[in-house]
Amino acid sequence: MEIHPKITPIYQSSVFKFEDLNELEQYFGEPSSRYMYSRNGNPNSDELAAAVNRLEGGAGAVATGSGMAAIFAAFMAFCQAGDHVLCAADIYGGSSSLLNAELSRLGISVTYVPFEQLNDLTSFVQPTTRLLLVETLSNPLLRVVDLRQVAAECHRHELKLVVDNTFATPVLTRPLELGADISLHSVTKYIAGHSDVTAGVVVAADADIAARLKQIGAFYGLTLSPMESWLAVRGLKTLRLRVREHSHNALAVATFLAQHAAVRAVYYPGLTTHSQHELAEAQGAGLFGGMLSILLADDAEVVNGFMRRSQRFPFAPSLAGVDSSMSYPLGTSHRYLTPEQQADLGISTGLVRLSVGIEPAEELLADLAQALA
Length: 373
What we know:
This protein is an alpha/beta fold.
């Protein structure tokens, strides 16, 4: 009896069988013809990579065990000991920790570029500079990078542009179409979308780089497990619907908070008062995502009180699940920056990041109103 499942089964196997030596030689001659060992490839992880690759319009992709693994793979695709990389100063704290604490041990040095200078890299480029890492929407202040302009500047200096597209997702922005060389995601966030998966994916515009990424994934053991891959694919099927609802709710929340006396500032590109609203609208297909940050009084007890009173935004230091949550950049994602770096980036005691879910918007607004009372 033939079985034709609508949904790909979970191939929960670390190894696959061969009939004889002829099949083994066929595998090494054409690895894509079959599977051998799940570190090198598995039907479930390949399905996830292929699905995100289609969304991003790439030439190939590889699924990894986390978003950090995806960033590491991207650096390894282009860099070796003695090289130099550039990184936007407005970046996730984990990314800067990887660069400062680990890649430096491999002989790769880094220079951070202030947001306002990303369009002119001349003073930052060295003979050994290989790439620039940026985020489509920066974490946590939601600054919007003009990817087309930055890509042109990178290529003028023969640099690769690597874009962390986690906050935006390919529903809002497709960096490869705007000139980026790599677009990557923490699949843990919007791609999977249900706070039950830890995964990453890295997509390349060039087929040779995609093949190199697959090698790196296998050599370094970055490969994603079958079960996590299957769960991420399941979540991905509703990505478009979820991102639309996240975006609609976040705009309602941002509009409400911008008018609240207890909120000193709201950072959300969907507000017309945001300095890059027009760029965000053009680059984000008219949607602005589900992430925003707010500035309360610079008093830890004010923040603590807000966290304790909120019922719909639990303090959970991650983002992008279907349920809303809040995080605290100073104490979590950007904890290991120096006080000077935190101050330069505007990360202060009163800064709170909100991940707006897909619950009824009126329930979220009512909860925020009582939490801020």
